[in-house]
Design brief:
two-stranded antiparallel ribbon, globular, 48% helix, alpha/beta, five-stranded mixed sheet, 197 residues
Length: 197
């Protein structure tokens, strides 16, 4: 006869409680991934939040998002008082390494503030998106622009990079969420610039 969910839960709880801290985190991540595999919401990144050691999480090289000092202090206070209510969005690079797509400053708070770092035992909560790099760049910009924190000057560098990967002007405008986009083409792609309203 099949075991009941409460019996299975008790067995799993007893097993996980017998492990040391890092083994416990690894086991919980394993269970979360297995549950997400059968979840009707597994196409949503927030369906499977994992805890990953901070040293395995890396910044990307294309994010022009800058947060002023008062906002960083507020973010620290928010995480201190409310905990991590949002994961860091990452791309799985393999071998346990992850690249940040969104949440660089949430990552900073967990690394730079000893009280937070100790509370989360040197781990960070992450969700995962699986997209090629050009699409991850678009994801980063959409996250930033939705919060109103995206830098305009570095945007021109990103537009140039996306153009080099084969994105058309209309795709760049659409994917980066621009209401109005003018891309000026000159003989040299280095002279391209972007403006948005």
């Amino acid at each position: 006869m099949a075991q009941s969910l409460s019996e299975i839960s008790a067995l799993l709880t007893n097993y996980i409680n017998s492990l040391n801290f890092d083994e416990k985190v690894e086991a919980l991540n394993f269970v979360r991934k297995k549950l997400s595999e059968i979840s009707p919401f597994n196409h949503e990144p927030c369906d499977c939040i994992l805890w990953v050691k901070q040293e395995n999480i890396y910044a990307n090289e294309y994010n022009p998002n800058h947060v002023a000092s008062p906002e960083m202090k507020l973010l620290y206070e928010s995480i201190k008082e409310d905990g991590y209510t949002m994961p860091i969005v990452t791309y799985d690079l393999g071998d346990g390494r992850r690249e940040i797509v969104d949440g660089f400053h949430r990552n900073r708070v967990g690394r730079e503030h000893e009280d937070i770092k100790n509370r989360i035992h040197g781990y960070l909560p992450v969700s995962t998106i699986d997209k090629p790099e050009d699409e991850r760049i678009g994801s980063t910009i959409r996250h930033n622009r939705a919060r109103g924190t995206h830098g305009i000057r570095p945007m021109s560098d990103i537009v140039l990079e996306l153009s080099k990967t084969g994105w058309s002007d209309s795709k760049i405008c659409k994917k980066l969420g621009m209401d109005f986009c003018l891309l000026y083409t000159s003989p040299s792609p280095r002279d391209r610039s972007v403006s948005s309203m």
